[in-house]
Amino acid sequence: MNKQLIKTSKFLSLVLRHKPEAIGITLDRQGWVRIDVLLKAMQENGRAIKRSTLEEIVETNDKKRFAISTDGLSIRANQGHSLDVELDYAPKKPPAHLYHGTATRFLGSIFKEGLTKQNRHHVHMTENRETAKQVGSRYGKVVLLLIDAQRMFDDGHIFYLAENNVWLCDAVPNQYLSEDKGG
Ligand code: HQG
Questions:
Q1: How far apart are the C-alpha atoms of 14 and 82, rounded to whole Å?
Q2: Is 76 helix (H, G, I), strand (E, B) or coil?
Q3: CATH topology of domain 97-179
Q4: Is the pLDDT of residue 167 over 80?
Q5: pLDDT, average across residues 87-103
Q6: Which residues does ligand 1 sit against, CB inside 6 Å?
Q7: Which of 183, 176, 182, 181 is nearest to 110 (CA)?
Q8: Which of 109, 9, 108 is nearest to 64 (CA)?
Q9: Which has the closest alpha carbon to 22: 52, 1, 45?
Q10: So what's the pLDDT on residue 113?
Q11: pTM
Q12: According to the model, what pLDDT value does residue 183 have?
């Protein structure tokens, strides 16, 4: 993705996850906004893009951050909101283990109170160690946490799979966490 597209993609993350009011739009309960409304609002705020550019961003985004509705009329962020939206994911049985990448400086707090959702709606986890490493390294010296998803699931915790293959849950209590030292 070229620099201008990345910039536009970041701006879309801002308005579709956190601050739709920045360009005077509102999202519905499930986080959707009409694409014609979005494009008009972007134009009025000096950020005009074509529909084809929007589609290119949705298709090529490295983490599949956005989805266009099946009727082609609306767009939303797949996850990562701080706004109150209902993403209506169906619960799903997770794989035996999941990973969460974080920074070493958070470990004391995490092993004390477990993983909590901070400003987002869920705790985010992945099956992919490399992805977890990248996510964690945004915050400092990275450390990988191994989540005993099988035991959590057996104990009644609910997991969801977002469209972009990020696993979500409400919280990960500390008894299901261990440091992954597998390199
Ligand atoms: C940490 C990216 C102290 C947690 C990625 C993380 C992901 C605690 C940070 C998505 C804690 C929250 C989410 C506790 C959790 N004490 N620190 N008890 N519990 N933390 O950004 O998982 O680029 O909200 O370890 O791909 O890093 O946005 O969550 O370091 O899927 O599309 O608090 O963001 O996607 O940070 O990342 P975040 P995350 P996007």
A1: 10
A2: strand
A3: ADP-ribosylation fold (3.20.170)
A4: yes
A5: 92
A6: 63, 65, 80, 102-103, 106, 109-110, 113, 115-116, 118-120, 124, 135, 139, 166
A7: 176
A8: 9
A9: 45
A10: 98
A11: 0.82
A12: 57
Determine the pLDDT at residue 111. Answer: 98
Closest to 73 measured CA to CA, from 23, 44, 39: 39
Under CATH, to which class is 3-77 assigned? Answer: mainly alpha
- Are the beta carbons of 31 and 16 closer than 8 angstroms? yes
The answer on pLDDT for 122 being more than 60 is: yes
Q: Is 5 helix (H, G, I), strand (E, B) or coil?
A: helix
pLDDT at 164: 86
Radius of gyration of the chain (CA): 18
For residue 126, give the ligand 1 atom closest to its CA.
31
What residues does each domain of the chain span?
A: 3-77, 97-179
pLDDT over 90, % of the chain = 81
